[in-house]
Design goal:
By secondary structure, this protein is mainly alpha-helical. It has a single domain (3-412), classed as MFS general substrate transporter like domains (Growth Hormone, Chain: A), CATH 1.20.1250. It is built from 17 helices and no strands. α3 runs antiparallel to α15. The protein is globular. The termini are far apart.
Length: 413
């Protein structure tokens, strides 16, 4: 199979698996009042997903080095189908949503770390940024399809049908993954006798560029996961502030607009990966991260502004928030030895998604503490909540600058 066809199938598989990622965020404005949840509880359900997701990323990354990326990707993919359907069928209050969303996340990461490892093993450094950009762009496409599909499905069949739509897509993802990988050798990335996880961790911790790349990614994940969790609900509030606050049309408009921003951000992953091959990894990271942080400090205060202004900022925010994700992954695979790729991605995922998992919960708690909920149109509470994302991301550019100076110094020697 040609590299182009292989990558196309892998990207299609990743896109299908990604629908479940934003399925809950799409229906928050509907399920929060129906399940009687506070904003903190609403954010905690999303955080439960991320905690499960980081466990799956960590486990999948370790399995890449031991049983091979191909087998890990396929096994985790089929498990993701069952867990996504459990959440869609049986979540009906805060406790059940918390449990089943955690379980759904627990198997969803098997299409991420192994997928990145497969790309790193197949593509050289000259085109690896582009290939990883395509893979992450496919995820953004899946997020957009989930939100846009929910905007069409909910008015006719309700929020549970929208969750089932996203869950059913994981089945297609598993089939497409099998089609892509059936002719791919199952090569473990690690050595014949893999080092223990602790030994590998100690080795990586002495690798200063890897440590900086992981730290910068952790700050990036805090901002990005909070953005994705609360963007649909915020755009619903912004749309309702322009018209009839209780109108179903306004609610669907907000969800649809969130989907469109994700659709546009598909280009961000492609552009970020390709641009990093041309002008350098750290330069792209700095451009994207500084812009997205600026959006974090501005975005929440736009409630009541003209909707076109809110949407323009949302597009820029989502574009720059995801635009450097592929570049972070590429950087890490280039600063660690080949035999450590799996464990490096695992450590990066645990720290990044560990911090990122807390972000939606902290955001929701901030809304509660400032006496505003997702159905309110007050800019103050939303402004403060969005600022928590920017504040948590500030260390990222500083670490990236240090990484840039370090890599330039090593290149000059």
């Amino acid at each position: 199979m040609s590299d182009a066809r292989w990558l196309l199938l892998m990207c299609a598989s990743r896109a299908c698996f990604s629908l479940i990622f934003t399925a809950y965020a799409a229906v928050i404005p509907l399920v929060q009042p129906e399940w009687g949840m506070s904003s903190g509880e609403t954010g905690l359900v999303q955080s439960a997903w991320h905690f499960g997701y980081l466990i799956s990323l960590f486990g999948a990354g370790l399995l890449v080095d031991r049983i091979g990326a191909r087998d890990t990707y396929l096994a985790a993919g089929f498990a993701a189908c069952a867990s996504a359907l459990l959440f869609a069928l049986f979540a009906n209050d805060f406790v059940s949503a918390l449990v089943f969303h955690f379980v759904a996340g627990l198997f969803a990461g098997g299409s991420y770390s192994p997928g990145l490892a497969l790309i790193a093993l197949r593509y050289g450094t000259a085109t690896r940024g582009w290939a990883m950009g395509c893979f992450l762009a496919a995820a953004s496409l899946g997020y957009a399809i989930s939100l846009l599909g929910s905007g069409l499905i909910v008015p006719a069949w309700g929020w549970r049908a929208a969750l089932l739509f996203s869950a059913a897509a994981t089945v297609a993802g598993a089939v497409l993954g099998w089609a892509a990988l059936r002719g791919t050798p199952n090569v473990a990335a690690g050595p014949i006798r893999p080092l223990s996880w602790m030994a590998a961790t100690r080795t990586l911790w002495r690798n200063e560029p890897a440590k900086l790349a992981v730290g910068a990614y952790t700050a990036h994940a805090w901002e990005l996961l909070g953005l994705w969790a609360w963007l649909p609900a915020f755009l619903v509030v912004a749309a309702q502030a322009q018209g009839d606050g209780g109108s179903p049309g306004m609610l669907m408009a907000g969800i649809t607009l969130a989907g469109l921003t994700h659709l546009i951000s598909v280009a961000a992953s492609l552009a970020g990966g390709a641009l990093s091959d041309r002008i350098g990894r750290t330069r792209v990271i700095l451009i994207m991260s500084c812009t997205s942080i600026a959006c974090s400090f501005v975005f929440g205060w736009l409630v009541g502004f003209a909707m076109w202004i809110v949407v323009v900022v949302a597009v820029i925010y989502n574009f720059t928030g995801i635009g450097d994700s592929a570049v972070f992954s590429t950087v890490l695979t280039e600063v660690v030895p080949r035999e450590y790729i799996g464990v490096a991605l695992s450590i990066r995922s645990v720290l990044g998604f560990g911090m990122g998992a807390l972000s939606p919960w902290v955001f929701g708690l901030t809304l509660d503490l400032t006496a505003q909920g997702p159905d309110a149109a007050g800019a103050y509470s939303w402004g403060i909540a969005w600022c928590t994302l920017g504040a948590g991301a500030l260390l990222g550019p500083l670490m990236t600058l240090k990484l840039q100076r370090l890599t330039e110094k090593r290149r000059d020697k």
